[in-house]
Amino acid sequence: MINLSYHKRQKLKLILVFLIFAAPMLLAWAMVSWQVGIPEKSMANGNVNVNVPELAQWPVDDKRVLDTKTWVLAFDCSQECSEHSDELWCLHRALGRDAGRLTRLRIGGSEATLPGEKVTHWSMYASWVEPNRVWLLDPMGQAVVAFDRHLAARQLLEDIQHALKVNPY
């Protein structure tokens, strides 16, 4: 057994405490410097680089439907509207207790309005609008994620649930 003096044991304990707290910082610095262990892809299934104006500036016929203090799931309903509306209605119901925190905004289409859905139409063509695109907008009207029409409803639901979870109000 190694016989250390009292002072040497205390110094060793202090060095070990410093190492315990400094090791995560050193590890993080090494990961960033050498790009090791950093995920390549973002967590979102949709596109998080959204270049659309805020909801209040959208060119729609009825601006009253834009007055909401909840999250908004806005979708362009120019093609395959009935299927798309039904799918998003089921997705909205799948949110369970968080369903009240989300409003569905259908833009276009001539089908009947589904429960919990607001309907309006484009008043003019906007260059950023893509057919059958879905946008998730925060309560302040900023687009957070844009979804492609071909994205599975389960993946869309995961992104919405994640956004509602990390933003509790």
H/E series, N to C? HEHEEEEH
Instruction: Indicate the low-confidence ranges by residue numbers.
Output: none
N-to-C CA distance: 59 Å
Which class best fits the helix and strand makeup?
alpha/beta
Helix content: 25-40%
Strand content: 5-15%
Mean pLDDT: 87
Quick synopsis:
This protein is of the alpha/beta class.
Question: Helices, strands, pairings?
Answer:
Blueprint: H1 6-34, E1 71-76, H2 81-94, E2 102-107, E3 117-120, E4 134-137, E5 143-147, H3 153-166
Parallel strand pairs: 1-2, 2-3
Antiparallel strand pairs: 1-4, 4-5
Helix pairs in contact: 2-3
Structural features, described:
The chain has 169 residues and is α/β, with parallel strands linked by helices. Helix content is 34%, strand content 15%. It has a five-stranded mixed β-sheet with strand order 3-2-1-4-5, covered by helices on one side. Helix 2 crosses helix 3 (153-166). The chain starts with 5 loop residues before the first helix and ends with a helix. 19% of the residues are buried.
Can you give keywords for this protein?
169 residues; alpha/beta; 3 helices; 5 strands; elongated
